[in-house]
Write a structure and sequence with these properties.
By secondary structure, the chain is α/β, with parallel strands linked by helices. It has two domains: about 1-35; about 80-180 and about 210-355, Rossmann fold (3-Layer(aba) Sandwich). Helix content is about 45%, strand content about 15%. The strands form three sheets. Strands 6-5-7-8-9 form a five-stranded parallel sheet, with helices on both faces. Strands 1-2 form a two-stranded antiparallel ribbon. The chain is globular.
Length: about 375
Amino acid sequence: MSTKIKKRRLLLKFIELLVCILLFFFLFELILILVGYDKPQGAIKGLVRRDEITDFSLKPNFSYLAKEPDFEVQVNLNSDGFRDYEHNLNTKGYRIMAIGDSQTYGVGVEFNETFLYLLESKLRQNYDVEIFKMGVFAYGTDNEFYTYKKFYSKYKPNMVILIIHPNDVLDDAEWGEVFLNKKRGSLFMRFFEIHSFFRKTFKFYDFIYVKIQHLSIFNGLKGEVSFFDDYKSLFINKDTEKTKKGFDNLQLYLNKFEEDAKKNNFRFVVVLASSIHQFDDINLLQDYAKSVNSTLNLTKVNYGVKNDLDKSTFFIDTYNVFYSDGNASNLFLPVDQHWNQKGHEVAADFIYEKLIKNNLITIEKDGQK
């Protein structure tokens, strides 16, 4: 048989396979339409924009309905592109800049259910205080530092609270100082828009995406995939090259925050946000730890962050309060896996208690002692 005929047959087999795949997804799509599958809204076109300082940011004054399998909430951004109300910058109260990622953004809950809104409400009962709520999903510590730099002179805070999630270590490993690369913001937006297009256009794509998201990243994808090994390594006593780099970059930006806190005379507070994987995936993490000759360490990131901090930085770790709840899984959204309403309430109460007990808020309301 000639080489030309072999190539033609291979090409025909490839075309047949491609047709079968397309036919499968066509039938899958048709079935989902017939059964009335209601796909979530998905990512929102126009929400993310390129930012010369922070890599990417959210479009000011943007509003949308966030709809996923386990929540449907309204999101309204202010004129600075944050999920917050408009602040009066002429007031003289105690100002707190609170910066973080999607947990701080409040994915999955209404604005008045977010822990920063609840914390501000509790503080205002006795103190003249306002919190600038500056959470942006997908941010790492580098983005958060440059967000602080971008708005420091405008907000003039007395305190900066940085909210860190364990997965920030991987964000910091991937990007680090790459904020200087202008391609990053546009690439993020390109992925965001392509993903949004497919979710909105094809029911089968959204169905598969939601089902994969519903599985634990440990239970659903236990194969030799480096990202998931990196993520699992955040909770055991052994680092991958990526987690090592992530911890180094995290320390770098924590030091930058601390240097600016001393230079600009504001109080720097770090809050470590709990992850559902510290409570729900213990058996799987133990198996992984054994497979790489290591041991379980669910609070490795917690202690890693704490040990990186200067003594002048106040550290609040939410792990113990979530653990003491008795059933921490009830504090997270089952599919999305961010904190649910109760989780935000627990976090707000705990952070409030720590701030007040340690006398970190100094401006009381008139007549309050």
